[in-house]
Amino acid sequence: MKRLLIALQFLTALPFKIRSEIKEEDYARSLVYFPIVGMTIGGTLSAISLCCGFLPVLVLGAIVLIFSAFLTGALHLDGFADTCDGFYGSRPREETLRIMRDSRIGVMGVVGVILLLLLKFSLIVGIPRDILWRSLIAMCCLARWTQATGCLLPYARNEGKAELFIKYARKKDIVIGGVLTIILFSALFGFKGIMIFFVSLFPALLFIRYAKARIGGMTGDTIGAVSEITEVSVLFSILTVGSIWT
Q: pTM for the whole thing?
């Protein structure tokens, strides 16, 4: 339970309190629960989309995005913005890391977030309503699992919030989370779900590989960026792969 609460604290803005002692290893051990937390977030968004199903589709899309930002505290959007600022241009590694740590958002961060939200909004309103609730659950689950997958890379800084997740990360926990995620996709979409899973995973793995080449590993910001990239990728895959295999 303690490690599940750690995952909830890290991935959501909800005020969970942990009364027992937390060891450094507990942070990394919580990675196995990341897909479960993703299912919880996705399930909440799914329930909201069903309750607001009587509204025009554009309004519904906006509401889903608003609640998504509220539930996560826009933490992953912040990481995506910082990553856009740092990775833009051919800067040296140390300068890239310094820009990403700056609390002020730059032009590329603003542009990146606007374009990301615009694309995500367009995808949400473009997905048929009868499968939107399933899409939101799948989106949030895979996005949190790819965050955990990114923790298998070295930590690119000397210290930071995500260090303990990466320092003690185990492949075993990531594999278990991956199996749970594939089972969920299959339950939601049948055989097509497996196709959607792998197609959606590809852009996230490409970015993780790029981050390793660019800054030597991952940071809290790039982990957040992985989540946002995966969410868009899942929605896009459901629209494309789902249509092809209809």
A: 0.93
